[in-house]
């Protein structure tokens, strides 16, 4: 097992990449105020005032607190970078409401306080109490990081203590764990960010180790609590022949789930949050068997259950996984939140194994495709599920959802993008460059030296970057830099202060290490790398019959699709047939998405049209990155293209 | 428009084909007593005693009466052919209960009498009252045909009169129509079978013509009745961008639905029952525009929405149609009842256009595949939905369903199989032979002559038949015979009393007419036809990307599939690759399904195995007709096979 890198020697990150500043502006100016309006309109905001009474409209729901908490987290992330008085006043109001909603024993949950008082902790399989608590804790951490005040963190940690008193392994405690994983992940993050409150680590460890256990003297916990309620437990929607509670990944303890032949099962967002926490705990605890379980389940996800966009969940019925290699396009679920969870999971795996660039690759795939496709370019319209093909015009982005997890989840992920650009070795002295995008950041080395890193990149549309590293004279040489070689690039030429560097290149990790590259007294050095993205073809797995004899196109981190709006001369996108070796022309398009400030690279080739009735003929086909589709009116779309 | 053939100059049919006697025995010995037990166990039987009170178990449901009525219809069909004292006593009990459940005004519906008294006819969009009434009427017709008594028919016709007084075009009547089509179809059948009670025809005509109308002075009827209830109407689950009420095919009047570019939409069983009635009314009324509408919608179904098994319904969410050519295998719905409805619809179209053998072909496809696959060989286990591929072992036939439409529906269709063997010209003097299966029947010609027809066929597994036609001297020559050429047969050699007949053969209709074939004084003649079934390959439509570069195998009316149980050496059926021109060996298998008395023809070839990791290698692949799958334990299955 590798030593654990510390995740955050980073500060004062400023993202200057124009692609990303556009997306972050859509969150700040679009999503954050827009989601606030929706929270307000639907009662999700005011429910924390605990004034709802039976008969009133906008009856609180069990997971409403989480919608607000995610928005609060995103707002705090955004405010840390960019002041906004109105947003700041809303954050204050939210914090006051949460503080005001806290009960004497520390409990905070609007639904169980006003709608089902006295029934708290009676149905943790479905109550979402711990899920909401997890998001509260994440919001409190973001608030602390933004304000440096513990005005929210203190009461939320008191709530966590209350949970830790109710649940645990001891006599008089309930051996239960979250029905929707989330709190585990937040506890571990809090443990790291608040410098080691052992209660947080212990509770997370308990939840992770207890999950799926059946006690010799008793039942599964979800059976125990259901029996107390005189009910049968609802085991969740499930595949035919599936295991009880697999919807929650609570059918078996994690190490046993990991060795099941059919791999990861059940609800995909739950699964991703869970595995994020499992990998995180493996790193903190240096528990090899947990690390192995996380790796196995990673493989199950990535090799057998993942769509090429980093989307997860073939089956809408349980918002989750289907059989291995069963990846239907039109009916696929691919919940936006599941891709967000995959970003978290990939990030934790990368922290465990920083030289395994596959984790960074999947992180980018999910972020640039599975996550970004979920938010309209305006930041005010959303997809909950993201099928890879749409046959009929009619699918429209929604302004809001009854189950509104995705919009604020996208917002909080994008506003914390800085986390994913770099990772660090345990001593903090090796910088792994995962994402190539223009930005500047301050890093603190183990010896206390402070360096400023300025990345000037042509990314994400074009390859290559230069990293200017600056510090006090003699400090710069203390840093080691590892550059990730992105998938599918041809050259990868490194230079230090314009002098080419001979490089050792590993095919397996696709990374290149360069270190000890400058003289001892230097106060600045520039590491540059040249590489080029080109269109590349992706083939499906032989057992993926939904895409049999199809290909898809990618360029850099982007997965491409054909949208009917760019191809008005093609009556039905299903009629196209692509020649395997067809050359793809790259065209910078500054016009199509100008309204949203997006310039990008589209791909063009000629394809056959085969409609059955008419003769075959050649036509031009244009592809755009999938994140851009469904912004210009009703259309149809396909990612996978049938071969001629 | 063709003249309308009379549907039933047929009597005393005795089916002797061993395949079918086996299936009918499974219904008589298996399904009928088994379904009765389920009706009894779940309260569906006794609810007609109207004794349920709030708090009692087995609370009646709105469509329970239909489950019992379908069982009753099937029991009566079966008793007509084969006496069974126990079954007969149950039928008597059922009839007495229905009679006893009738209210003073004629109304019969257990749910609205005991669970929601006073709310009858307030929500015909969803109440299933007319649906239950339709099945009651069908049961009453079957009971009348079996007993010649009007003990059930009279009260049910009184109920229909009550419905006709509540609903209709006149002042004081409600301009409503069934939320689940069924009554229309039963009314028209009753009209024909009870010799022309005009009220029945008028009410059916009203329902069909009124459906989907929006009145200048008002709303859609489902809006009107919802407004009266102070509710919003539930328009049903629906495709994105779909039309309101299209779930019920009540979005537009039938002739307008027929010219929509996207063809038939919504719930597929509703659609089939509706189109059956539309085609039936077109025949009875000789309304050309209605005939054209039925034809257009037939084309929409058959060419663009139908699975090769005669299964319908790509989308489970609304148990109905998806976009044109969108026919996913694993997630397909293909409700057994929808294929039953397709048999009805095809039959009515065939009666309208008896020389169009495409209707008889689809009828056979649906019957031998889409319907028969829905019942286990034991007659005691069922599939509600019938996907064309199953990737994981786990799918098991059910003993019963909460929504239990399919089991008794299969039973009533199979027990009325005789209807589909022959159709007749309007004057009754031309016999169209649609199905080749051993049987005998009596037919009555327009002049009153009575003939006996004995068919000795090697069907359905082998081609060829001989028809022995017997009658008083000189009568036999009055009959004209039209033999349908089944799809995909190579030869079609007709002989009369062993003398080959020169034949005119139409590619379009695939029928062959032979008439005036014997001398005036003959009292018997044998018409024989030789043809051979061979394995044939079916290719998908170019826009059907779910089956891109796949083929499927058929032989005679049977669609074949690979079931894992016959192919234990193939680790995953998705790994096979079939050579396009691969020869298929036909093997008579008397062993595999011996337990259920089934002998059949299996198909065998060698295919490539392509698992991704190991080398390609050749293995043997065995296919069985899809109706036989899922009878020998858990397995996986595929109909469409990827090409090498």
From TrEMBL, chains A, B:
Keywords: Hydrolase. Pfam families: Beta-AFase-like_GH127_cat (PF07944), Glyco_hydro127C (PF20737). Residues 13-418 form the Non-reducing end beta-L-arabinofuranosidase-like GH127 catalytic domain. GO terms for molecular function: hydrolase activity. GO terms for biological process: carbohydrate metabolic process. Residues 535-642 form the Non-reducing end beta-L-arabinofuranosidase-like GH127 C-terminal domain. This is Glycoside hydrolase family 127 protein. The lineage of its organism: Eukaryota, Fungi, Dikarya, Basidiomycota, Agaricomycotina.
């Amino acid at each position: 097992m590798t030593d654990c890198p510390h995740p955050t020697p980073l500060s004062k990150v400023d993202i200057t990449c124009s692609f990303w500043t556009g997306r972050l502006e859509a969150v700040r100016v679009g999503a954050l105020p827009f989601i606030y309006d929706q929270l307000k309109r639907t009662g999700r905001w005011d429910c924390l005032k605990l004034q709802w009474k039976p008969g009133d409209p906008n009856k609180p729901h069990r997971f409403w607190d989480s919608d607000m908490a995610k928005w609060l987290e995103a707002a705090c992330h955004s405010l840390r970078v960019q002041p906004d008085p109105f947003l700041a006043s809303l954050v204050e109001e939210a914090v006051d409401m949460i503080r005001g909603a806290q009960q004497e024993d520390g409990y905070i949950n609007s639904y169980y306080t006003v709608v089902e008082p006295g029934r708290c902790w009676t149905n943790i399989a479905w109550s979402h109490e711990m899920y909401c608590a997890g998001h509260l804790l994440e919001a409190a951490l973001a608030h602390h990081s933004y304000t440096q005040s513990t005005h929210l963190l203190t009461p939320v940690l008191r709530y966590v203590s209350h949970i830790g008193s109710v649940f645990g392994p001891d006599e008089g405690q309930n051996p239960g764990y979250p029905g929707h994983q989330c709190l585990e992940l937040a506890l571990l993050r809090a443990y790291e960010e608040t410098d080691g409150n052992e209660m947080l680590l212990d509770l997370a460890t308990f939840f992770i180790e207890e999950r799926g256990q059946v006690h010799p003297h008793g039942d599964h916990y979800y059976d125990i609590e259901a029996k107390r309620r005189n009910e049968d437990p609802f085991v969740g929607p499930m595949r035919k022949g599936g295991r009880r509670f697999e919807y929650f990944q609570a059918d078996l303890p994690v190490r046993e789930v990991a060795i099941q032949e059919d791999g990861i099962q059940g609800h995909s967002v739950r699964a991703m949050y869970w595995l994020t926490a499992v990998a995180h705990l493996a790193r903190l605890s240096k528990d090899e068997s947990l690390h192995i379980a996380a790796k196995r389940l990673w493989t199950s996800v990535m090799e057998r259950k993942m769509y090429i966009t980093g989307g997860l969940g073939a089956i809408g019925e349980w918002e989750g996984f289907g059989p291995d290699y069963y990846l239907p396009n039109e009916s696929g679920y691919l919940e936006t939140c599941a891709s967000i969870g995959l970003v978290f999971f990939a990030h934790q795996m990368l922290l465990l194994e920083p030289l395994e660039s596959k984790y960074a690759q999947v992180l980018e795939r999910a972020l640039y495709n599975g996550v970004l496709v979920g938010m309209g370019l305006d930041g005010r319209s959303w997809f909950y599920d993201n099928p890879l093909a749409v046959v009929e015009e009619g699918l429209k982005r929604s302004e809001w959802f009854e189950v509104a997890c995705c919009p604020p989840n996208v917002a909080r992920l994008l506003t914390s993008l800085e986390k994913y650009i770099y990772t660090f070795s345990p001593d903090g002295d090796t910088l792994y460059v995962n994402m190539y995008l223009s930005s500047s950041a301050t890093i603190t080395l183990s010896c206390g030296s402070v360096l400023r890193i300025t990345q000037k990149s042509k990314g994400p549309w074009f390859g290559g970057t230069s990293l200017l590293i600056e510090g006090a004279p003699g400090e710069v040489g203390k840093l080691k830099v590892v550059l990730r070689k992105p998938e599918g690039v041809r050259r990868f030429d490194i230079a230090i202060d314009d002098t080419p560097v001979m490089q050792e290149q590993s095919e397996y990790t696709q990374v290149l290490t360069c270190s000890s590259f400058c003289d001892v007294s230097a106060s600045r050095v520039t590491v540059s790398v040249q590489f080029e993205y080109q269109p590349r073809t992706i083939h499906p797995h032989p057992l993926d019959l939904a895409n049999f004899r199809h290909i898809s196109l990618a360029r850099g981190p982007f997965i491409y699709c054909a949208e009917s709006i760019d191809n008005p001369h093609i009556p039905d996108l299903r009629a196209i047939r692509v020649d395997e070796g067809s050359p793809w022309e790259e065209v910078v398009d500054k016009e199509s998405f100008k309204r949203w400030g997006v310039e990008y690279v589209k791909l063009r080739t000629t394809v056959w049209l085969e409609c059955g009735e008419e003769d075959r003929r050649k036509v031009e086909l244009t592809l755009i990155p999938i994140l851009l589709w469904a912004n210009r009116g009703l259309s149809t779309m396909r990612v996978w293209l049938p071969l001629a």
